[in-house]
Amino acid sequence: MIRINRASLDADLALKLFTRTEQLKITDAGPSAARRAWRGASVEREQLRLTLRRMSAAIERCMYCGDSRGTDIDHFEPIKLSPFRTFDWMNHLLACSCCNSNAKRELFPVDSAGAPLLIDPTMDDPFDHLRLILSTGTYRWNTPKGQATIEVFQLNRADLRRGRELAFPRCQAMLRDYLRLQNSGNGRDAVKMLNALHEQPFADVLHAMYRTMTNPGADIVLGGPEVLEALHVSRP
Ligand SMILES: [Zn+2]
Q: Domain spans of the chain?
């Protein structure tokens, strides 16, 4: 999971969402009515999906696992708990069906003060709460928010761990290729390689590599300043 910059909505869509929310409030809609309204808002949903896809890392990846294609609009705070937030742009994220329908579903843990215990990648920097062990592809948590996020999204499920574990040497190999092309004066192919590196799934692996290099206590040496510069391109 990496930090995602939330885009601004165009005025037309923002007005449509505002109107939808007002309708829910006027009719004091509960979760069932809000879900019906959501299902009926096909134009708004399609516009939202396009905007979320442009925001996501790599090529339309899920904002939670970073592996699968983001197909679903997830209500970060579930409709069941907050029907009036059904059309709230700040409550929309792009998720794969596995993260959305199998893992998170309507789970939304909060702390004793009522604050969400899940990381919202458009509000939080996930790496403030999580750390990724590059050699195994496993997430560890730094905070209770990180712990709940790993549990709810099942971020350490076997396929994701293995995918990240394999992405690490692949990213290293692509970095080496990029530097070789750059140093041999083949600038056009170097740029292609760098773009390929930053559009591969598991953008979190690339971010963890960057974090490792900027951490004074890092125990993995990935290269010199030229590697840091190449990784930096992906920083939001
Ligand atoms: Zn996912």
A: 159-232
